[in-house]
Amino acid sequence: MYKHGQTQPRSRRGLLAAAAGVTTFGLAGCLGSTGEAEQGRTPLAERTLRYGGVMALSGGLGSVGEPIADAVELPAKQLDDSDLEADVELQIEDSETTARGGINAMRTLVDAGYPAIAGPLGSDVTLQAVQQASIPAEVVNCSPASTTPTLSILNDRGFSFRTAPDDSLQAAVAARLAADKHDASSAATLHIAGDYGRQLSGAFATSFGGEVQRQVSFDDEYEDPLAAALSGDPDLLFVIGYPKDGVEIFSHYYDGYEGDEVVFTTDGMMDSSLPEQVGEPMQNVYGTAPSSNGPGYDAFAEQYESEFGREPSIFTANGYDAAAVILLANAAAGENDGGAIRKQMRRVTADGGTEVTPDTLAEGIRHAAAGDPVEYRGASSEVVFDENGDVSGIDYQYFRYDADGFSVIEEITPEVGS
């Protein structure tokens, strides 16, 4: 049982959630084929695997945060349905898509003794929350949807990971598509204030072969920044923000402009409900977003749709992978300790162990708890962490909005060095 912050329970076991504030999954069964646990390890039957989640359940990312939170919950549900003997305890807190909300949510989980946390979502929220809450407390965090390059250079003492790629590649992909597919020789950017928008706008400007007339930021006001970005009549407008921003920006755009420009958006604004909310088909709006291309994607997608009654969406596979790796690392560590889990995050994804995918997670937990090497192969990617806790080998979707949502035009593999 668990709850969103201090409010309504997410769990289907509502009575228990309301009473205790966390979700505890009892996993009845046996240790299985690996036999006795490695000498000195606490058997799974005597353990509770604890992990938390800092998700954007409201605010600018609320519409995409809920599905990602479901994906973070899914591994615990799988283990609950398996014959593995252990307990899993999960608590999810709402960041409200704000830095202060993210810090408070992270501190709530840290104070409750959770040794590893999936999240937060949103680059600026993550930067603040991990620096002020999880890293000082030596708690592992693994974000499924924070893409700023700044996360790669944090002094995080090895406690920060992410299953989403950094935005340097996405910017290069978008810039190349702008020139090759749309013959754009001039562009302007309109980006959300903060590290996420500033970094992605700057990387696009560096990669774009034509003239970047302006890079304009917005915060709580949209009309004047939009006018400033379009004042030079650019061939292409590159818009960076979240779905809530997109509703405001595109409502102003279609009310006040001809709509002749080609408009590009990014992963943060990828939301199939956007045209309906704006009241326009948005057919001049294109976008890029990381693609989920891991070897375990099909198994994840089938289980996600079966459990939640809808197809996976942006960063849901990354959310699942963040939670699955944390659980495997916890099992391998043999204790709910952030430092011990940190040491196992790369080991449970490295080559050479028993292969684990989303459809064999319970067996993987069993092997990891017994001290056997395992190799997690994820839904979003292979999930191999480099020295900065980043993943690589990500393809990108090139998509276009329409009256029914959006459709993917093609999958793009970034050029090495782009």
What is the gist of this entry?
With 418 residues, the chain is an alpha/beta fold. The chain is built from 13 helices and 15 strands. Strand 10, helix 9 and strand 11 form a beta-alpha-beta unit.
Q: Helix count?
A: 13
* Helix share, percent: 25-40%
Beta content comes to: 15-25%
Order of helices and strands: HEEHEHEHEEHEHEHEHEHEHHHEHEEE
The biggest beta sheet is recorded as: 7 strands, mixed
Helix/strand/pairing class, anyone?
alpha/beta
Low-confidence stretches: 1-21, 27-37
- Spatial extent as radius of gyration: 21 Å
- Give the overall average pLDDT: 90
Number of strands: 15
Distance between the termini: 45 Å
Which word captures the global form? Answer: elongated
* Strand order, largest beta sheet: 8-7-9-10-11-14-15
Can you walk me through this structure?
The protein is of the alpha/beta class and 418 residues long. The chain has 13 helices and 15 strands. The strands form 3 sheets. Strands 8-7-9-10-11-14-15 form a 7-stranded mixed sheet, with helices on both faces. Helix 5 (168-182) crosses helix 6. The longest helix has 20 residues, at 62-81. The chain is elongated and about 70 Å long. Residues 1-21 and 27-37 have low confidence and may be disordered.
